[in-house]
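From the pipeline queue, job 12 of 40. The input is one protein chain; the requested action is below.

Action: predict structure.
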Amino acid sequence: MDLSQSLQNNNTPPSATALPLSDAVREALAVAKRGVDELLIESEFAQKLARSEKTGTPLRIKLGLDPTAPDLHLGHTVVLNKMRQLQDLGHNVIFLIGDFTSMIGDPSGRNITRPPLTREQIEENAKTYFAQASLVLDPQRTEIRYNSEWSDPLGARGMIQLSAKYTVARILEREDFTKRFKAGTPISVHELLYPLMQGYDSVALKSDLELGGTDQKFNLLVGRELQKDYGQEPQCILTMPLLEGLDGVEKMSKSKNNYVGITEPPNTMFGKLMSISDVMMWRYYELLSFRSMAEINGFKREVEEGRNPRDIKVLLAQEIVTRFHSASAAEEALADFNNRARGGIPDDIPEVSLGGAPLGIGQLLKQANLCPSTSEALRMVEQGGVRIDGAAVSDKALKVEAGTFVVQVGKRKFARVTLS
């Protein structure tokens, strides 16, 4: 029996004194459940909400993020959006920066040991984490904590005592650990400690609800079990789907180059969002938009009745750009997008000076930072994705003479190149 099944089977039967659910509690539960993958255990969380309403005591809602990279993208904001929704319902949200657990490295979904980060790397990444998260959360109503506060003081004795509360067999129920163990792939001892340390965070914070992506389910359940061992009421857990990237297939990731960074320029952000498919647009609406589901369902009906999906996608792109920049930036981004769609050139493009004329088109595109390599540049030429002063380039052997001209790669990359 795995940990999730154990949780379900050991669910405490409803108390005879269970609190009735008011309309406000039912509405709060509906808000919490919007777009979620799982809410465990829903009946327990409903009772937590009812008790909170009766006593006037907000719930303590926790989200932990390890600062393994300095920048956040829209995929990260899926769970942050849920935190904001719960924050707006009046509950206390805790943004936990995993400066201690980052030194272990989260093994979730990995088939090799993650190299632990240094303290210096963690501190550098953590500097921008909360600033970026504050673009979604209300920073004035957000409690910021670092898990080194309680993890560092544990020491060797405390770590041994904590480890005694969990068995190796239970830890190895994790799917990624199971696969690695069966394949004979090494699992370092420190990786086995990660779920325990994340779970201990819930004990230290007396969490009522913990949020995470679907890949965090095992870790969240460990927190629930540890709270029982420490005599606390166990937290409920809420998992959010992992947002697909711009390709509509893979999870959004900077390494896969299918991401929208929340600090990217407005025009770039707008253009990327307009590139998603009409089908994927609804997924983005559900997980990223702050519009009500009633309004989103209204948009769906309009599209079914013949409205151009592009109009609805524009509204989504404007909402996201406004959130992370401003309403005026969103309007300017829309104008820039429309100008590009008509074959126009954006007002603000990079100015690049190069030497070596005549210069091969592949080298020119690479040196102008319009393509990562000459091979990629030539591939773009072959696919008809390169233009010079609006004219398509089809000759991969083209030698560009000296002069100043606007070079375009794809729909969104431009540079004004002066070649001498």
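Job complete. The radius of gyration is 25 Å.
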